[in-house]
């Protein structure tokens, strides 16, 4: 795919949604961090239901740590893998208090040192909470990048690096949100909704569907 196509793709995505946002509900960087940790192999809708119960009761590292693993589990038991997530979150809260004064660090290295925080989670927090140029590649973004030809790659890291290189600079900060929303609602895994797609004429996918 050439640069002109990529530019037009992101111009249209921006035109349709000038200020894209994550669908995870949060009001502070810490709440976002916890929501993203909980969202692994879970839906944003499911996470939001759990955090709607949790955050009014505890939404600081100190308060969540005070719940303990069992106490936290009661709030998040509707989410997949909640036992291991509860352990990770409690330990993360302890480290945030002990090492970072209860604040969410703004570096990838410090974030990835927290339990339950991998590269993708760190990138989401850096980009969404702190507005840094970071590209979190989930299954939706991996699929869209490969299927459209925007940034094809065999691994998540390869796609991430290509997106950072190829996405036009003026659209890079919000590209993560546009791509994930496009993958979630239009360029879906089993049957892409090509007939409803704003970038169908620019997409290089060979097996386009006639309509949704």
From TrEMBL:
One Gene Ontology term from the biological process aspect of the record: base-excision repair, AP site formation
Cofactor note: Binds 1 [4Fe-4S] cluster.
Cofactor: [4Fe-4S] cluster
Catalytic activity: 2'-deoxyribonucleotide-(2'-deoxyribose 5'-phosphate)-2'-deoxyribonucleotide-DNA = a 3'-end 2'-deoxyribonucleotide-(2,3-dehydro-2,3-deoxyribose 5'-phosphate)-DNA + a 5'-end 5'-phospho-2'-deoxyribonucleoside-DNA + H(+)
Single Gene Ontology MF annotation: DNA binding
Keyword Lyase set for record: yes
Top-level taxonomic group: Bacteria
Keywords associated with the record: 4Fe-4S, DNA damage, DNA repair, DNA-binding, Endonuclease, Glycosidase, Hydrolase, Iron, Iron-sulfur, Lyase, Metal-binding, Nuclease
Stored Gene3D superfamilies: Helix-hairpin-Helix base-excision DNA repair enzymes (C-terminal), Hypothetical protein, domain 2
InterPro entries: DNA_glycosylase, Endonuclease3_FeS-loop_motif, Endouclease-III_FeS-bd_BS, HhH-GPD_domain, HhH_base_excis_C, HhH_motif, Nth
EC number: 4.2.99.18
Binding site for [4Fe-4S] cluster: 187, 194, 197, 203
Residues annotated as domain HhH-GPD: 38-185
Pfam families per record: HHH, HhH-GPD
PANTHER family xrefs: A/G-SPECIFIC ADENINE GLYCOSYLASE/ENDONUCLEASE III (PTHR10359), ENDONUCLEASE III (PTHR10359:SF18)
Protein role: DNA repair enzyme that has both DNA N-glycosylase activity and AP-lyase activity. The DNA N-glycosylase activity releases various damaged pyrimidines from DNA by cleaving the N-glycosidic bond, leaving an AP (apurinic/apyrimidinic) site. The AP-lyase activity cleaves the phosphodiester bond 3' to the AP site by a beta-elimination, leaving a 3'-terminal unsaturated sugar and a product with a terminal 5'-phosphate.
Family designation: Belongs to the Nth/MutY family.
Protein name: Endonuclease III
Gene responsible for this protein: nth
